[in-house]
Amino acid sequence: MEKRINELRKHFEGLEIDGAYITSKTNHRYFTKFDNGDGALLITKQNAYAFEDFRYIEIATKLLSDNYTVVQPRGKRSEWLGEILKKEGIKKLGFEDNSLSVSAYKRLDSDIECELLPLGSTIEAMREVKDEWEISKIQMAQDITDKAFEHILGILSTDITENDVAAELEYFMRKHGAEDKSFETISISAKKTSLPHGVPENIKIQKGFFTMDFGATVDGYHSDMTRTVCIGKADNEMKKLYNTVLEAQLRALEFLKAGVSAKDADNIAREIINKDYKGCFGHSLGHSVGLEIHELPALSPNMDKILVNGNIVTVEPGIYIPGKYGVRIEDMVAIMDNGVKNFTKSPKHLIEI
């Protein structure tokens, strides 16, 4: 944690601040590896403080004392914050303008006697590049996700519902080490597969394409995978559509490495799909994943960002034909100097059940 704290301090001069006040749940966890949505951090040029209430003070003291002075405010937190700001001589305090509500900002501004300046996307930019510890947690989350997919293939049939599949995937992941699911599980069949974010219902699975988009979290870090299978036999048009998506994904995976543009990666996949299915790939090729399921950088036609070693991105082309069906195939990879590390091991050939 000391490394992350010191990295943030390097930005103080450019931001013209004397310290940073961190209140968002995600960034609190990034700087502590401790999950407390009600905690707050104050990082100054010389010291670091963790404000944790009675419910979390015992575990926070145990986990954070090496890097933080752990404070349990009795009464109004801002009063304790104000006292420390005075003691530290803080005149200009950075705050998380991307997450702090207007009402919370107004309360903070009225309670402390220093100038508030926005941190902007400083911390989010730090989080774009994952270290080895973060990568190991993402791999653990994806390993659980892969096992869940292998398990679900053994029970898929037209005798169970879309909700049954979602519940079974989530139960399996929890039972095998996940602290939670990554997001609301997508498990949809037949015509509903044309909906990129279709919602599972208490209806039996129908024959045709069946799409599952799901993931697990481990120590706060997410996985994200989509697989589309076929319940019954696929006809020639279904096979053509599926193989087009697969080709688009494989070509994009082959292209990706440090130094290439996120926009160009999207274009590689989009050009393949547009040959026969123009207008049927309406979302971007992928997004970054970490402590949140959607982070930057994104593999988007609107993002010129050059990818670097340590970026984590999904690669998830899809084709969606309204009222008929759709296919999406998604892997999650780490960008490396000479290619990618693919976290996802689940098979991608067309599986017919």
Summarize the structure.
36% of the residues lie in helices and 22% in strands. It has 353 residues and is an alpha+beta fold.
CATH architecture of the largest domain: Alpha-Beta Complex
Question: Total strand count, please?
Answer: 19
Q: What's the CATH C level of the largest domain? A: Alpha Beta
Helix content: 25-40%
What does this structure look like?
The protein has 353 residues and is α+β, with helices and mostly antiparallel strands. It folds into two domains: 2-127, Creatinase/prolidase N-terminal domain (Creatine Amidinohydrolase, Chain A, domain 1, 3-Layer(aba) Sandwich), CATH 3.40.350.10; 132-342, Creatine Amidinohydrolase (Alpha-Beta Complex), CATH 3.90.230. It contains eleven helices and 19 strands. The strands form six sheets. Strands 4-3-2-1-5-6 form a six-stranded mixed β-sheet, with helices on both faces. It has a three-stranded antiparallel β-sheet with strand order 7-10-11. Strand 16 (318-321) and strand 17 form a beta hairpin. The longest helix has 22 residues, at 132-153. The protein starts with a helix and ends in an 11-residue tail after the last strand. The relative contact order is 0.11. The mean pLDDT is 96.
